[in-house]
Amino acid sequence: MDNETSNRGMNQAFIITGILIALLAIGIVGYYINDANTNAEAQGQGFTPSAPPSGEAPPGKVWSYEHGHWHDAF
């Protein structure tokens, strides 16, 4: 009987370990799929430069199309 009880315990340990590994694998795959979707959405937004406000630039300033505000010229 001891041998049979020991085998049941080992079988339960293998089943629990297998379930934990499967859950870990599902979590890792889900993380990478979600990360790939997030990156694709961010890349699809593209870059839209902003036009400078009307009128003259403030002295010593240049318009940054990338940032949408004035920067020091030097």
Short account of what is shown:
Helix content is 59%, strand content 11%. It has one domain (2-72). With 74 residues, it is mainly alpha-helical.
Task: Give the secondary structure arrangement, pairings included.
Blueprint: H1 2-45, E1 61-64, E2 69-72
Antiparallel strand pairs: 1-2
Estimate the mean pLDDT confidence.
Answer: 84
The span between the termini is 87 Å
Structural class by helix and strand composition: mainly alpha
Number of strands: 2
Q: Radius of gyration, rounded?
A: 30 Å
Q: What profile does the largest beta sheet have?
A: 2 strands, antiparallel
Strand order of the largest sheet: 1-2
Percentage of residues in DSSP E strands = 5-15%
In words, what does this structure look like?
With 74 residues, the protein is mostly helical. It has one domain. It has 1 helix and 2 strands, in the order H-E-E. The chain is rod-shaped and about 90 Å long.
